[in-house]
Write a structure and sequence with these properties.
alpha/beta, 6 helices, 7-stranded parallel β-sheet, 232 residues, 7 strands
Length: 232
């Protein structure tokens, strides 16, 4: 892929600290966007051109609805950036069932449903030689699971494993799976855990820098972005 101009891209989690930076850069690159957030007004308030789609990723129907919205808006789907995610902190003995279920639903199960729902449209894009892609963020915890973040680490490790296996499957269909694993990034996610409180964290990467690296990887045809890919 030498250009994102006129590519139809769905950004899931566009209202997040990283998602909106990626959406901003994709828009500047000329992509035709479908922007997702749990709250439609927050998506509109981003001020980024694109179709608006809302939905709760815990709902099994949301993935299909988001893909349909992107295809309806732009006539096709050439890529998905899944920038949605949740975090929780605390010892495993203190983590509730609801927290575990929600982490797995949003961080692992939702991307699986998204790829399954998008597969026909992405395969059609591949047949038209548009180099379709599906990008997720399993993050550095999938490489180095972290104490007092065990449930979160497990949800991201599950996502990374899914990407490795599913990536091999869809590669035969001409679809690229890209897993990005940046270290701590100053998205504000750590200040909004669904349980527990964040430990003292070192200063993280700037979201704009991570977003730029990710978009450059999409354009360059990369298939994997380990934590070392984000080092200065």
């Amino acid at each position: 892929m030498t250009s994102l101009a006129s590519s139809s891209v769905l950004v899931v989690g566009a209202t997040g600290g990283l998602g909106h930076e990626i959406a901003r850069i994709l828009s500047a690159e000329g992509a035709l966007l479908t922007l997702h957030g749990r709250n439609a007004q927050r998506v509109i308030d981003l001020g980024i051109a694109g179709a608006v789609a809302s939905g709760d990723l815990c709902d099994p129907e949301t993935a299909t609805q988001l893909v349909a919205a992107a295809v309806a808006a732009h006539g096709r789907l050439d890529g998905i950036v899944n920038a949605a995610g949740l975090v929780a902190f605390g010892a495993l003995a203190e983590v509730s069932d609801d927290t575990i279920d929600t982490l797995m639903a949003v961080n692992a199960t939702a991307p699986m449903r998204l790829l399954r729902a998008a597969h026909p449209a992405l395969a059609e894009s591949a047949a038209a030689h548009r180099d379709p892609f599906f990008l997720t963020f399993s993050g550095i915890v999938s490489e180095s699971p972290t104490a007092n973040m065990a449930a979160y680490s497990a949800s991201k490790a599950a996502l990374a494993a899914f990407g490795t296996a599913a990536g091999r499957e869809i590669r035969r269909d001409g679809i690229r799976f890209i897993d990005a694993r940046p270290g701590h990034t100053e998205t504000g996610l750590a200040t909004r855990p669904i349980q527990g409180s964040a430990p003292r964290l070192p200063t993280g990467y700037r979201p704009a820098d991570v977003a730029r690296r990710v978009v450059d990887a999409i354009i360059a045809g990369e298939r994997d972005l380990p934590s070392t890919a984000f080092s200065a």
